């Protein structure tokens, strides 16, 4: 019995495997998101197609998804936030994976919709990092160093 790739702390057999295999339905958007991540990690590309909302399957490339899932090493899933209504829900997550030797972070806000008894992934938007604004003015290379040493910035703290 191995830990579930989704990071829930449960075993894969009791967490995401029943959802991926079709033996159980996802209880909500977060459970579906976790099982979709686990499907990437275990190479279950068919589930990724099945869990996509029927209105959005027309342009889904299962072969490309299968290749991407197989060529990446899936390192972890962090659920940032999750909200579920009766018919729609959203999950913000960060999936960490290694591809071509580089560790990457996929930060997405996903939308899910319930049709009948089943939840489906609708779409997602990338969450961009916030712009950082520096509060202090920029120190020029030839300006006196702000540390008070009396040296030029480029010869002191700027080197």
From TrEMBL:
Quote the SUPFAM superfamilies the UniProt record gives: NTF2-like (SSF54427), Sec-C motif (SSF103642)
Question: What NCBIfam families does its record include?
Answer: PRK01617.1
Entry-linked InterPro entries:
NTF2-like_dom_sf (IPR032710), SEC_C_motif (IPR004027), YchJ-like_M (IPR048469)
Q: What is this protein called?
A: YchJ-like middle NTF2-like domain-containing protein
So which domain of life are we looking at? Bacteria
User: Which Pfam families does the protein's record reference?
Assistant: SEC-C, YchJ_M-like
What range(s) does the YchJ-like middle NTF2-like domain occupy?
29-124
The organism of origin for this protein:
Candidatus Sedimenticola endophacoides
């Amino acid at each position: 019995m191995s830990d579930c790739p989704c990071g829930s702390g449960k075993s894969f057999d009791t967490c995401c495997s029943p959802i991926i295999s079709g033996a159980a339905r996802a209880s909500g958007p977060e459970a579906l998101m976790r099982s979709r991540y686990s499907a990437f990690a275990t190479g279950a590309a068919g589930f990724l197609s099945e869990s996509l909302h029927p209105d959005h399957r027309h342009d889904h490339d299962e072969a490309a998804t299968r290749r991407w899932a197989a060529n990446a090493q899936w390192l972890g899933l962090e659920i940032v936030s999750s909200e579920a209504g009766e018919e729609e829900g959203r999950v913000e997550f960060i999936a960490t994976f290694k591809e071509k030797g580089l560790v990457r972070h996929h930060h997405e806000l996903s939308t899910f919709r319930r049709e009948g008894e089943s939840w489906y992934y609708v779409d997602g938007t990338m969450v961009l990092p916030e712009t950082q604004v520096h509060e202090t003015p920029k120190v020029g290379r030839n300006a006196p160093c702000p540390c008070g040493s009396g040296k030029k910035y480029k010869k002191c703290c700027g080197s």
